[in-house]
Amino acid sequence: MRFSHQTGPNGPQSCRLSVRHTAAAVAVATVLAGPPSSAEPVRIDPETGAATFEIQAHGVSLSLTQLLPDQVRAFYVARGFDLDDADVFAGACVYMTVLRNDTTPGTLDFRLSDWEVQHNEEVHPLPPLDDWLAQWTARGVPDSARLAFRWAQFPSEQSYAPGEWNQGMLATGLPPGSRFDLIARWMIADQTYEGRLDDVRCTD
């Protein structure tokens, strides 16, 4: 995981926290310039085995928690999706995503269209919410089920005052078992920040 702060007329300044982990252990290396940062790279739910990848820096918290395909499938079938349609989303490497403005000096603004996934040495955007909604319309998913889907997703863009936060489902569109890096970007007081979660794992 890395967190960088890009600002100033004379070029970028950075505050980065890098984390790499293996099955046996987690190695943490930090290079800091500016306010202190902290991260707990992976937490494992003892009941489900789902992993949470997270970072905390400059008063902002970002986390991705694996959602098991069975969890996602059951959630949407209960809200009016048929099994085939629910399977499409359940197999798209879905996470419960939380972004918090804990203690920043101003409003946090973000757009998911500025976030990227790095996978197999290629960088691409996250699947847009509108693309999912268009697919559900084409597949004949009922209006009520599409509305439930929309409200369950992490917002496409949002502003959070200090103390505000939100959560929702976020799909990477990657196959099960994939590993990727997430590059997230946001603005605080006209300054651009970038948070990076490295070696995030999709469930098998």
Can you characterise this structure?
The chain has one domain. Helix content is 18%, strand content 43%. The chain has helices at residues 69-77, 83-90, 129-138, 143-152, and strands at 2-6, 16-21, 26-31, 37-38, 42-44, 51-57, 60-66, 94-101, 108-111, 116-119, 122-125, 157-160, 165-171, 179-188, 191-201. The strands form 3 sheets. Strands 1, 9, 10, 11, 12, 14 and 15 form a 7-stranded antiparallel sheet that branches. Strands 4, 5, 6, 7, 8 and 13 form a 6-stranded antiparallel sheet that branches. Helix 3 (129-138) packs antiparallel against helix 4 (143-152). The longest helix has 10 residues, at 129-138.
Structure described in brief:
The chain has helices at residues 69-77, 83-90, 129-138, 143-152; strands spanning 2-6, 16-21, 26-31, 37-38, 42-44, 51-57, 60-66, 94-101, 108-111, 116-119, 122-125, 157-160, 165-171, 179-188, 191-201.
Entry keywords:
single chain; alpha+beta; 7-stranded antiparallel β-sheet; 6-stranded antiparallel β-sheet; 4 helices; 43% strand
Question: Helices, strands, pairings?
Answer:
Layout lengths: L1 E5 L9 E6 L4 E6 L5 E2 L3 E3 L6 E7 L2 E7 L2 H9 L5 H8 L3 E8 L6 E4 L4 E4 L2 E4 L3 H10 L4 H10 L4 E4 L4 E7 L7 E10 L2 E11 L3
Antiparallel strand pairs: 1-15, 2-3, 4-6, 5-6, 6-7, 7-8, 8-13, 9-12, 9-14, 10-11, 10-14, 14-15
